Amino acid sequence: MKFFQCLTIICMILSIVAGTFIIPAAAAVYLHELAVLPAFFIPAGVLWAVTLALFLKTKRSPIRLTTREGILLVCFAWIGAGLLGAVPFMLSGYVPHFSDAIFESVSGFTTTGASALENIESYPMALRVWRTQMHWLGGMGIVALTVALFPLLGVGGFQLIKSETSGPDKGKVTAKITHTAKALWFIYLGMTILQILLLCVAGMPFLEAMCHSFSTLGTGGFSTQNTSIGYYQSPAIEIICTVFMLLAGINFSLYFHLFTGNPEEFFRNSELRAYLRIVFAAAIGIALVLIPIYGAAAAFRHSFFHVASIITTTGFSTVNYCTWPLFAQALLFLLMFTGGCSGSTAGGIKVIRWVILRKQAYNEMQRLIHPHGVFSIQLNRRPGRKDVVYSVAGFLFVYCICLLISFLAATLSGQDILTSITAALTLVGNIGAAFGRIGSGGDFSFFPHWAKILFSFSMLAGRLELYTIVILCVPAFWRR
Fold it and tell me: What is the mean pLDDT of residues 24-46?
């Protein structure tokens, strides 16, 4: 019975995802792209029927999840979402190969933004809407959405949210995890609506404004145009996207504190302060070397845009940054190791982990000066957990192993070192932007099919903070 209970929860999560098919389907009706409608209605109908049958079978049984079952449920929910998201691409006939459809779908839900498709403008708008909508759903988390809508996960709800949320320190901002999920999703939805309105005012058509808002707040980077945000040649649109990318890279629980009359939590946050310092330092450094090329105003605009795009792992672009001076490219490359804040929709290693390591390094130097001193890490002006340094060190080790595997897979497929290393960083860090053959405007279409399947697991591992996926390979996890 426990198997059917878990299967029911997974199907309910996927049914909610399938319910959002109504948005690209409505776009298809509005734009008279009726041929793609069955690609959305058929999988949704089948999934809803299966979910209803399973729910009727298990509805009287109380749901109690162990830690192991919670981890498995989150893993298979995300794998299932990747499979479900690929179905419209395949049924529509526009992406016939399984590996391309899976790669595109997983890249969408994990908010990576790496694409296996060429000339995206040739695809129906409904499929382009679905690509960006996957970013939006995956950004805050499909399990978090389910918990927010249906408190059916009982005592296992917090364990599931922890398995899906980013960062080394995960907690609730309200007493109940259901209320936490609802609060964060309302903030997320409100910011999305605000960006859509601003982009429309700036001159972007509504559907495209919606798609780019989905990608921006989800920090994914899929665009409806081949040349991304650069297609619009609009400083206003670039500035709006820059601001919202930076906002999406901040821990969403801080917004909850800010909006509920507790602003001191927002302004004293150690990670937020470090995040803003990194952004401004990198953007100013890059702008200074771009001024001779673009002039002061355009240099600062392009610099802040691409710094925001890479540190938040969004992957939008306005110009070909691969032609910039090497110093500017080097700074962007280093930002690929940074990531946004924990609890945000951004990927990467996360700023908080670098803050913890910096503070620990300072403490080690203090111990050399004062051998008998007692030193602790201060986070948000409060003592941090003693074991957090070990947690960060373990994460970085696993992160490097995943990077190595992805890097070797890329080289095995015949790619050069620069393309391979930035491909690994882009996939495991869910960054989207890269250098080499997959640099600005590039894609993953030339990789072999087996590599795209492997890369899909790299993206999933990165989105679920590595352990949730990697732990499945540990024999002890499967022992009773």
Answer: 93
Q: Give the tens place of pLDDT for each residue, 96-114.
A: 899 999 999 999 999 998 8
Position 466 pLDDT exceeds 90: no
Least confident of 196-205, 340-349, 365-374: 365-374
14: exposed, middle or buried (Cβ count in 10 Å: 0-12, 13-18, 19+): buried
Domain boundaries along the sequence of the chain? 2-227
Specify which residues 383 forms β-bridges with: 378
CB 34 within 8 A of CB 24: no
In the predicted structure, residue 4 carries a pLDDT above the cut 80 = no
Residues ≥6 apart with Cβ < 8 Å to 441:
226, 227, 228, 317, 320
Q: What's the CA gap between 11 and 52, in Å, rounded?
A: 9
CB neighbour list of residue 273: distance below 8 Å, 6 or more residues apart: none
* pLDDT tens figures, 397-446: 999 999 999 999 999 988 899 999 999 999 999 998 888 888 877 789 88
